[in-house]
Amino acid sequence: MKERYTAISRRQLLKLATGFGVSVGLHPLLQRSARATGVASPMLGELLPIDRYPNQIDLKVFQEQIKIGDRQSNAITVNGTVPGPVIRLKEGQIAKINVSNELDSETSIHWHGLILPATMDGVPGISFNGIKPKTTFSYEFPVNQNGTYWYHSHSGLQEQQGHFGALIIDSLQPEPFSYNRDYVVMLSDWTEEDPHQVLSNLKKVSTFYNYQQRTIAHFSEDADWARMRMDPTDIADVTGATYTYLMNGMAPANNWTALFKQGEKVRLRFINASAMTYFDVRIPGLKMTVVQADGQNVQPVSVDEFRIAVAETYDVIVEPEESKPYSIFAETMDRSGYARGTLSPQMGLVAAIPPLRTRPLRTMADMGMDHGSHGDHGGHGPKQQDKPIDHKSPQMDHGGHGMQAMPNANHAEHNMSEMNSSPAMDHSGHDMHNMDTAPAMDHSGHDMRQMDDGGADLGEAVPHGPDHHGVGNAGVPMMVKNRLHEPGIGLESTPDHKVLVYTDLRSLEPGSDGRSPDRELELHLTGNMERYMWSFDGKKYSESPILQFYYGERLRLTFVNDTMMEHPIHLHGMWMEIDNGAGAYKPRKHVLNVKPAEKCSVEVNVDVTGNWAFHCHLLYHMEAGMMRTVAIVERPMGEQS
Amino acid sequence: MKHYLLNKTLGAIACGLGLLPMAPAAAEHNPLPETAIAQHRHSADPEIPAGFTPLPGVEPEYHGDQTYGLLLFEQLEYRSQQGENSVNWEINGWRGGDYQRLWLKSEGEIGTETGDGEQETQILYSKLITSFWEFQTGLRYDYEWGEDSNKDRFLGVVGLQGLLPYKLETDAAIFISEAGDLSARLSLERQLLLTQKLILQPELEVNLAAQSVEEFGIGSGLNDITLSARLRYEVNRNFAPYVGLDWSRKFAGSADYSRAEGESVENWSIAGGVRLLF
Ligand SMILES: [Cu+2]
Asked: Which residue from A12, A384, B60, B122 has the least number of CB within 10 angstroms?
């Protein structure tokens, strides 16, 4: 598989390394003069087999002008580039990384997805006190995992300014898949605005960057949205109106290029290092085989497209059959722009760039006005895997069951004829008869101990509880349901085009821990878009900072998304095993995308000590308060395990 | 003195309603020693459960209660009407966090020929009481100037500002003047997107008074209704030139005062200006 590279000479390696995609430690840092030119080499991102891993890696954080796209911009760089250098580590080694802060303000580096001691996690105020200006902090931790990860600043809004890079850990054992070429594909969103200004703009006018709002042409259709004081075009808070979307630091026009030879297998390690942007990634003409999610091996799934939430990683393998260029196309979820590169047999070739699709609209399902599609998705847990999942299932289910009995029943008085005229609500294939007999409420308050292992109530709608979480939460969904089997907004109606869903993800190895959860902790993802407030359970980090996990427990964390936006929820220091019906093969993730009006669960082995960050990985949501410190404490006396 | 008392009274009412913080909530449910809770923290009263210990040497910092602000010149315009033309402004601004803000509202007009004019400025404490509504209370200062006379007055303000269903931006306030006169104002407006950048903003404003105040030309009952529309082109979110049309009519006693002054009770005007967002 990788043997062909043994012939590559040291000289050739050095030559490649003088480009952008330096593997730190193998080669000396670029000189400042080299950095100042800031022009990315097209070879950026190629990973070559290395035989020696450095004992120590030195990183320097600078604030400087670099060229992004065709403009000089003010950025925070790591060793002079955006993204920072690719860090290569070997599973089983001790990583020693010195980070020097050349900024005038505090900085930090968090090793995203790594399981390491709490003091090495790099979150100011939780793991340590940050790296003060003109000082160096030495990280040291054992490397006990492998796969594709990344690193980024956890200080203020520095991540938006370019302070991130890829972190690749080579496996000790041979990997369960083969490939001939290996590339990092790091996606990001870049703005020339000061990120504090961006957040300030959102606080003033939450639709500041939305130039795809509905006009009065849809006045009557949107009456229900207007009545609820919500906006169906609220897909992304920050958009292509200010962002340039980058692939390995290169704007679409600069066309980052990955080379291949006909017949080769190419591994592409997608990392979404965006502050705020979800991407839908496809390579027209090629199937992609997903082999890793968040650095963890999964049972291979062949897809045409996948959505990558902020801070997730997906490794795919592609086998271009023809010797021709293919576009690597990463369209933003709100369709306001794209990042793009080319997979090409030689430099300088380009393939057609697909047109941007029409931006999707939020549906009543996203508002929790969906009363569940029990008829379509009867059945629990592992059984679900055997059933084909109908992605064309209706977005809006007008079940005839007791709406009046539900909380917020006043929301149910919407005019069906208005709904029908909305193009986003697809009633095709919708079987009303099944719905009428479906027990709507039976599964609320179910006892999780009675559920079979990995029991996920896919598609099962349950009413939202009575707590509306106060003024910081604006739109409380009437019903919430598990949506792990749904591809997500804008990707629903894609016949003959397989889009990755969370229920496709099955760990390659069965989990080491067969225990059932001891305890369930339910957290609501809350927000008030009108005032750009984001929180958990209606409380911001400043109001309710601590979440307690008990040392040694297996915890079920249940998320209920009360908002009509997706939130990429990130837990530091511990894996989240998604309760997606895969039984013992639950995929381990560090980021879970929770869809609007969704209720879903993960299980966590609380086998670490210390304090850890837990937050929405949308940078401005986190900054606005959608964060907690997870404190690992002793199980209180009197509480049974 | 009267103003002070008025404000104090309003403050007491607000506290009674549980709208204003009386005193910082006590930290009695927080058994951690003071040293464990770093001063670094911004918030006055976060819920820290027992058993939480920061890592050795780590000073916790909990964000989410930063201060932001807005200054919006909703109208900055030249207005042409029967009688005298004028320069008009309407400014709204706030500074504060998510829950509590200090608001500034100012509007006024200056005649371009005579230099006569009037202005009204409100400084309000504002608290978010539901997801879409702010309770506001504070002081309003009116000032009218001209060749004949200069006059001013202070009023206490209690109001609600927020978003009604159908996205109607609403500002409803009750005013009590230093003389004890009671009046009220309701304004409703909505943004209608013709395109992403061409935005029509219709507005309705109604003024009411409980008793007449001759000095300011106010009769009791319904004073006036104003219907207006501004059509702006957002070059960007911060800068939008616009044109506008206003129609207003006075009623009952207010209309009588106008007639007595030789002014018309019904007015049309057209306007051009810029909307600026800072
Ligand atoms: Cu979020």
From this structure: A12
Contacts with A506 (C-beta within 8 Å, 6 or more apart), sequence order: A298, A299, A385, A582, A585, A586, A587
Per-residue exposure over A141-175, b if at least 16 CB sit within 10 Å of its own CB, e if not? bebebbbbbbbbbbbbbbbbbbbbbbbbbbeeeeb
The pair of three-digit structure tokens given for residue B245, joined into one six-digit string: 């049309």
The pLDDT tens digits of the residues spanning A579-599 come to 999 999 999 999 999 999 999
* CB-based contact, A413 to chain B, within 8 Å: no
A117 contacts chain B (CB < 8 A): no
pTM here is: 0.84
Say whether B43 and A542 touch across the interface (CB within 8 A): yes
| A282, A133 Cβ separation under 8 angstroms | no
Give the separation between CA B81 and CA B83, rounded to whole angstroms: 6
Alpha carbon of A591 to ligand 1 centroid (Å): 12
Query: b/e map of A524-560 (b: 16 or more CB within 10 Å)?
Result: bbbbbbbbbbbbbbbbbbbbbbbbbbbeebbbbbbbb
CB A328 within 8 A of CB A340: yes
| Residue B80 bridge partners (DSSP) | B270
Residue A517 CA: distances (Å) to CA of A454, A506, A507, A513, A612: 10, 19, 19, 10, 20
Angle at the Cα of B36 (from B30 to B41), degrees rounded to 5? Answer: 85
Q: How far is the CA of A557 from the centre of ligand 1 (A)?
A: 17
Cα B148 to Cα A230: distance, rounded to the nearest angstrom: 51
Minimal C-alpha gap between A538 and chain B (Å): 11
- Give the containing element (helix H, strand E) for A31: none
Tokens of A238: 């920050």
Q: Look at chain A and count its residues.
A: 641
pLDDT in tens, B39-67: 334 444 577 877 788 988 898 888 888 99
Task: Give the distance from CA A601 to its chain's centroid.
Answer: 16
Which of A543, A548, A628 to mutate to test binding with chain B, by most B CBs within 10 Å of its CB?
A543
Token digits for A348? 């300088």
> What does the DSSP 8-state code read for residue A517?
P
Q: How far is CA A430 from the centre of its chain?
A: 31
Cβ-count burial B34-59 (b if 16+ within 10 Å, e if not): eeebeeebbbeebebbeebebbeebe
Nearest CA distance, B171 vs chain A (angstrom) = 16
For the four alpha carbons of A492, A496, A500 and A503, in that order, the dihedral sign comes to: positive
Say yes or no for a CB contact (<8 Å) between A625 and B43.
no
Q: What is the pLDDT of residue A230?
A: 87
- b/e for A405-438, b at 16 or more Cβ within 10 A? ebebeebeebeeeebeebebbbeeebeeeebeeb
**CA distances (Å), origin A353, targets A245, A273, A329, A392, B106:** 14, 22, 7, 27, 51
| Token output for A525 | 């993802």
Q: How far is CA B214 from the centre of its chain?
A: 25
Largest CA distance in chain A: 75
* Alpha carbon distance A411, A230 (integer Å): 13
Chain B, 149-168: which have a CB under 8 Å from a chain A CB? Answer: 163, 165-167
A38-47, A401-410, A476-485, B131-140: which has the minimum mean pLDDT? Answer: A401-410
Q: How far is the CA of A276 from the centre of ligand 1 (A)?
A: 9
- Look at residue A108 and tell me whether its pLDDT is greater than 70: yes
Would residue A220 be called left, alpha or beta, if left means φ above 0 and alpha means ψ between -120 and 50 degrees?
A: alpha
How many other β-carbons are positioned within 10 Å of the β-carbon of residue A281? Answer: 24
B132 interfaces chain A, CB cutoff of 8 Å: yes
Please give the mean pLDDT across all residues of chain B. Answer: 85
Q: What share of chain A is helix, strand, coil (3-state, %, to 5)?
A: 15, 30, 55
